[in-house]
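Sequence in, structure out.
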Amino acid sequence: MAIEERPPKDVQCQCGNILRVERVRDWCTQCGRAVYHDPKDQRRHKINNIYMMALVLAAFTVLGWIFIEMIASPMLRLQ
């Protein structure tokens, strides 16, 4: 996926550093946080992270359920 170039824009980081951002996302040179060209991109990135974390949590939940139902439950019944 190619990085989308945008017109240069001065953006202030949360630490107070002012950066000239030409891409969708760049990194602050002082604190290392992500700085976005457009606030919509920042919200989209946050929502995507929440979505991926929910998928990983769901996958672990299903794997845990399978372990309990297929392995732990039958072993406990043997004793």
